[in-house]
Amino acid sequence: MKVDFWQIGRDPVERVVALIAQKVCGAGERLLVVSSDPQQLQAISTALWETAPEAFLANGTADTPGAERQPILLSRTCDALNKASHIIFADGEWRAEAERFDRSFLLFGQATLEGARACWRSLDGGEGLERSFFRQDGGKWVKVA
């Protein structure tokens, strides 16, 4: 399992989700985006729909008909109705259900920094686990660890 920690700085969460979603969907995988905040999920949906036409990112919410057909599913829970192999925790809260996915992304900012650090430490040395840390340097995302 891969776990990527993305420290949000300059760009808003919804823009970072769209960036990751482009890569995940471009690789032919499905994605689940989780947040306990319904307003954040709405902002993410809007950002995904408004992404450049060449990178159209269809998405839907878990509580609507056809959720299982969505390449990108937005939800308040970790139930991958769309059989996603990748999950983004957009609200900065790690959930143990991440182990059910091939790859997890924890997006965190200043408000959730301590939780992300604790999560990083708790995942240290896990067998079959690969951790990575990304930070924005100017306008580019760089892998720091």
Structure description:
With 145 residues, the chain is an alpha/beta fold. The chain has one domain: Rossmann fold (3-Layer(aba) Sandwich), CATH 3.40.50. Helix content is 25%, strand content 26%. It has 3 helices and 8 strands, in the order E-H-E-H-E-E-E-E-H-E-E. The chain has helices at 13-26, 38-49, 113-122, and strands at residues 2-7, 31-34, 60-61, 72-75, 86-89, 103-108, 130-137, 140-143. Strands 3-4-2-5-6-1-7-8 form an 8-stranded mixed β-sheet, sandwiched between helices. Strand 7 and strand 8 form a beta hairpin. The longest helix is centred in the first third of the chain and has 14 residues, at 13-26. It is globular. The model has no long low-confidence stretch (mean pLDDT 94).
Please provide a brief summary of the model.
The chain is α/β, with parallel strands linked by helices. The protein is 25% helix and 26% strand.
Please name the CATH architecture. 3-Layer(aba) Sandwich
- Indicate the low-confidence ranges by residue numbers: none
The biggest beta sheet reads: 8 strands, mixed
The strand order across the widest sheet is 3-4-2-5-6-1-7-8
Q: What sequence of helices (H) and strands (E) makes up the elements?
A: EHEHEEEEHEE
Corresponding CATH superfamily: DNA polymerase III subunit chi
What proportion strand?
25-35%
Shape: globular
Determine Rg (CA atoms, Å).
14 Å
Domain module count: 1
Number of helices: 3
Distance between the termini: 16 Å
CATH topology: Rossmann fold
Query: Which range best describes the helical content: under 10%, 10-25%, 25-40%, 40-55%, 55-70% or over 70%?
Result: 10-25%
Could you tell me the mean pLDDT? Answer: 94
The strand count comes to: 8
Quickly give the structural class. Answer: alpha/beta
Per CATH, the class reads Alpha Beta
